[in-house]
Amino acid sequence: MIRINCPFCGERDHSEFSYGGDGSIVYPALDAPVEEWVEAVFQRENIRGVQTESWQHVSGCRQWILVERDTMTHEIHSVRAAHEGVAKVLEAGK
Amino acid sequence: MSASRLPDGGRIDRSTPVNFKWDKQNFSGFAGDTLASALIASGETIFGRSFKYHRPRGVMSAGVEESGAIVTVGRDDRRDPNVKATTQEIYEGLNASGQNAWPNVRTDIGAVNNLMSRFFSAGFYYKTFMGIPPMEWGKGTGIWMQYEKLIRKAAGMGVASREPDPDTYEHGHRFCDVLVVGSGPAGLAAAVKASLAGLDVLLVEQDFELGGDYLNQSTPEAELTRTAALKALKEAGATVMTRTSAFGLYDYGVAGLLERVTDHLADPPQHTPRQRFLTVRAKHTILATGALERSIAFGNNDMPGIMTAAAGATYVNRYGVLPGNQVVVATSNDSAFTAAIAMAKAGASVTLLDARESLPGGAAKLLESHGVNLKSGSTVLEAHGRKGISNLELAVKSSNGWSAGETLDCNLLMLSGGWSPVVNLLSHRGVRPVWDSQNLCFVSPGHDEPIQMAGSANAVWHTEDCEASGAAAADSAIAAINNQTTSIVVPATGGWESPIEPLYEVTVEGRKLKSFIDPQHDVTADDVRLAHQEGFVSVEHLKRYTTLGMATDQGKMGNIIGLALMAEALGRDIPEVGTTTFRPPYTPISLGALTGRGKGAHFKPLRRTPIHEWNLAHGATMTEAGLWQRPWYFARKGEGITEAYIRETITTRESVGLVDVTSLGKIAIQGPDATEFINRIYSNAFAKLPIGKARYGIMLRDDGIVMDDGTTWRFSDTDYFMTTTTAHAAKVMVWLEELLQTRWSHLKVHVTSVSEQWAGSAVAGPKSRDVLSACVEDATTVTNDALPFMGVIETRLKNGAPCRIARISFSGEMAYEMYVGSDYAESMMDLLWESTQTFDGCLYGTEALGALRIEKGHVTGVELDGRVTIEDAGLGAMVSDKKSYIGSALRKRPDLNRVDRPQLVGIVPKDRSETFKAGSVLCAEDKLEGHGEGWITAVTHSPSMGHWIGLGYIKGGYNEWSGKTVVAADPVRRGNVDVEIISPHMVDPSGERMRG
Ligand SMILES: [Zn+2]
Fold this sequence. Notes:
Radius of gyration of chain A: 14 Å
Strand order of the largest sheet of chain A: 3-4-5-6
Distance between the termini of chain B: 98 Å
Order of helices and strands of chain A: EEEHEEEH
Largest sheet of chain A: 4 strands, antiparallel
Mean pLDDT of chain B: 92
Strand content of chain A: 35-45%
Number of domains of chain A: 1
Number of helices of chain A: 2
Largest interface: A-B, 33 and 26 residues
Number of helices of chain B: 24
CATH class of the largest domain in chain B: Alpha Beta
Mean pLDDT of chain A: 94
Structural class of chain B: alpha+beta
CATH class of chain A: Alpha Beta
Oligomer: heterodimer
Largest sheet of chain B: 7 strands, mixed
Helix content of chain B: 10-25%
CATH architecture of the largest domain in chain B: 3-Layer(bba) Sandwich
Number of domains of chain B: 6
Shape of chain A: globular
Strand content of chain B: 25-35%
Distance between the termini of chain A: 28 Å
CATH topology of chain A: Folate-binding fold
Structural class of chain A: alpha+beta
Number of strands of chain B: 50
Bound molecules: zinc ion
């Protein structure tokens, strides 16, 4: 029953969103060695506490967002657009 | 008959008699009665039979904690088992019956179990039926399941209807500033105060009347305060809901509510749902949920005629019913005094047994002034009687505990072993209650949740203190919501004149007693000790082993006694032993309410193409493809599905056929970097796709496994049109958005789902170009030169509708996909169909579509099942080695490149007249076991080949198995069939027909 403050639409119920995954991962270049891809795709921390997650407002604006959520309490510490350019524009407009 | 309706008093409406049935006999009560109060007034004592021993059970309470009077309400498809008679309102025509008894609750054959009770102690079923041959662990699970079914039948509680539920249920959502649960003195005070502060307040009450404990009091002041509060709430605009249970609290201030809309009505209006399931989001929650009075464990304490002290007073004051005229009240605390006085005022002879040796003078005097006979330092040792209590044996305090005392006649025994605040909802939030050694109960500890406990739910006992407690809780909520810090004075807990004394179980050295702590599940004090002897030390294990607190009342009355006895056995204190975790729901909720409207046709959304009605008008039989309705086959006169799809397949191969392909996913990919983007997501080369051409592409996941396939058409430098499979349309769209927004935000590309904007038809077969020529504005645009294999054009239909056409083939024939704006869908079909008929062509559905593609060895979602590589699917030619793309790194992992991986093959029955089924396991002839060597994904009768064919995967593929006999094992359906493995490209492997 989490509620997420979408940077585009405002606070909405989590049922409008779909969970992506670990939002802290920087995916390697497409031609990067297989080891780097194994690291990025398969190795995950099982975090107890605050983790950065990607979510998509799939039943809303369809934007991907990065959410800092506490896995123990569901408390959300921050939400920002995943798209770097868009995030910068939103940040500047604050 | 000892129980009777009092000549006056109570909150029932004596001018409105209500007739109902109980166990097939006619009864009547008054509006405002519960089933329990009406039946007690009519002299009924036995309401049910216990779970294991079939002991008679009467009314033990006056509320949701009821553990004895559990009944079935309604009949046939509206049969609702395990309803508490103490909360069920009566209505005209109500039909209730006893359960867990045969032939009825008064005379129950199963009661013989009671004589064998020593064989039914804790863990009996486990010990008897498990762990001994042939049911050693891991071996006889199946046999245990069989036994369990029988045991459940013999021991079962009420039986639910097996017919479809005829009622409707609704789901709703709402927001509020403050949710107040419970409308007793604390809840009303809190709701009034918060409303007057301008907050949006929602007050919910599980009872059908507002007032909580005010309703159980007989003083005019109580009623005045109650009505004044209700008036204030109304004026302040608070929302008030009765018959509404807050069954669970969740994250972010979410509460689950169940509103019983029509369960109390004889003739529910047609438009109303039976129940509503509400999700409420509150900034603050005040739990004024009250407290439940505890029982005491002594011999035969489960006998009909024994109830809590407060329940006795409730029946007198609220329902105008005297449940017995010869009353004994046994207590360990002051709260039972008012109950005893209420009984005396109603005309009963009353004896009060107080376990404490000395009572405060004021109380003793007050009791005596009402004619209550007071015996201090005494309690009950054992109750006696045949089908209800008729006398009891006293226990008298002695130097080393209790000793047996005199015998007292009585027909009603009222108990108070203390009070347990209802902290259940707070516990749902993971807040562990702590033991209050002053008030002998679990209470809320300090916590960070935006939740306040108020009134007796916080161990505040007196009405005026509860009102103050509610107001203080409201103050806290107001301050929190307005971001203020104020110091709020919270009334102290407790309030009894003399302290409560621990009284959980009464025993006398050398006496064997059957003392129940969970009357519904027949868990006795001895069971707890036995569990301890057998090594159980954790309360959670104790609960599961003895089933204490696992019945429909969830141990609301007996859990604390169980904990106390466990603590005693372990030689520890109650706080050290701890309590079990309360979980939602606080009171049972029906599965129908959870389901809401989401059942039957509304279980999932339904998608129809713009050609849907047209298909139906032209004889389509529809089928489900995911959420979509698609034409399955178009039967002509005298045809079944088999004849129809075979004819459609042959007609398409020999002449021409049309099929609705609108359900394919369609994505517009636009922007200066569109080419780069597409080149990165497909495994094959796209960088040099010319304008005016389409290309088949395969998309991998990061891990190198195939995600989806489809065609992408190029209209300009910056404008592409991608089609996906029907099944993966949504997933692919999400994937493209994720890549563009999270990984490649520097790419200037826009993706738009246009699946609903374009309606499409495939035109397939040797005559397809002729059909097209007749339908487009300018026939020269679709000649072989103008529109070669994999060519794309944008043009207009004869009726002027803009359309886009690609010459692509799924059937293996010369074929086209044509799309128009959805509004033109039917006119496109009219044009195509008119022309198609001149060539004796046909319409075809998914069944023929399947036959055509299986013959060609084309893969779909069943083959691309999220486990296969490009090579596994026989599409190795679709890989570019000159570029990097999504999945290109991880597809090189060694395990994905083993030669013995399952690979796509064609399958034919060895005896060509045989058939087989999709889902069969492919096994080596001499090794019919385990997961076999592969599996069959799709089968069809192939008109081209004249027999059945299939596609599937087998380890090592065609090279490994060609010429060998393989068994398509299907032991529980079709039976096993010998098959041969062939190339998956079964018809026109060189592809001449589609290029021609
Ligand atoms: Zn949004």
